[in-house]
Write a structure and sequence with these properties.
Blueprint lengths: L5 H14 L16 E2 L5 E5 L4 H6 L6 H12 L8 E4 L13 H18 L3 E4 L2 H10 L7 H4 L4 E5 L2 E5 L6 H5 L2 H17 L1
Parallel strand pairs: 2-3, 2-4, 4-6
Antiparallel strand pairs: 1-3, 5-6
């Protein structure tokens, strides 16, 4: 284990991400989006990729999906300062397309280091890309989101036992209003696990 503090390690990683050219998404970005929140968080929420607003500001989940996420966190009494919020890839794909598997694979090195710095007890992938990547990463067979959302899976990570808690992406509630209730129920279940 490094003797550097979590803050110093994350800062160093941020500098590396800002220079990263592994997948080519850097060519069209304004700002890389490393993630933000508590480096001692029990839970880390991981989405797919930064959108337009995130790319402009260099912060995760600050657009419409971020407003939904903030509302869901508030609903269970958590603020952004108590969790860590991130994405599988750190640069916005052109036209907000879904990140390609090669891009996810290249950027997974950064995500892996973030997870090892934070050492969360709960990893909550949000949306198909994040769920697929993290299920594979933890040696699970990816399943459709409709079957596995809100169900916990115990997995082993380098820092110990972790709960993988797949969820719909907050943006899903914007386009399919009925999913807002599903997300609220999943967040309530997550709160019970945290407590």
């Amino acid at each position: 284990m490094s003797l550097m503090s979590k803050e110093a390690r994350m800062k160093k990683l941020g500098e590396e991400v800002s220079k990263c050219q592994l997948c080519g998404l850097c060519e069209g970005r304004q700002n890389p989006v490393l993630g933000e929140g508590s480096l001692d968080a029990t839970v880390i929420f991981i989405g797919e990729a930064p959108g337009r607003k995130e790319d402009e500001m260099g912060r995760p989940f600050v657009g419409s999906a971020g407003l939904v996420l903030d509302r869901l966190l508030d609903h269970i009494g958590l603020g952004r300062e108590h969790v860590y919020i991130d994405n599988v890839v750190k640069c916005r794909p052109p036209n907000n397309r879904r990140p390609r598997s090669k891009e996810v694979e290249a950027c997974s090195l950064h995500l892996e280091r973030q997870l090892e710095i934070i050492e969360p007890g709960i990893v909550a992938p949000m949306g198909n890309s994040a769920i697929r990547h993290l299920m594979k990463r933890f040696g699970l067979v990816p399943s459709p989101i409709g079957k596995i959302h809100g169900k916990l899976c115990g997995v082993e990570a380098p820092w110990g036992r972790v709960v993988l808690f797949p969820m719909y992406h907050p943006a899903a509630a914007i386009y399919r209003r009925r999913l807002e209730r599903v997300l609220e129920e999943d967040f309530a279940s997550l709160k019970r696990i945290i407590d």
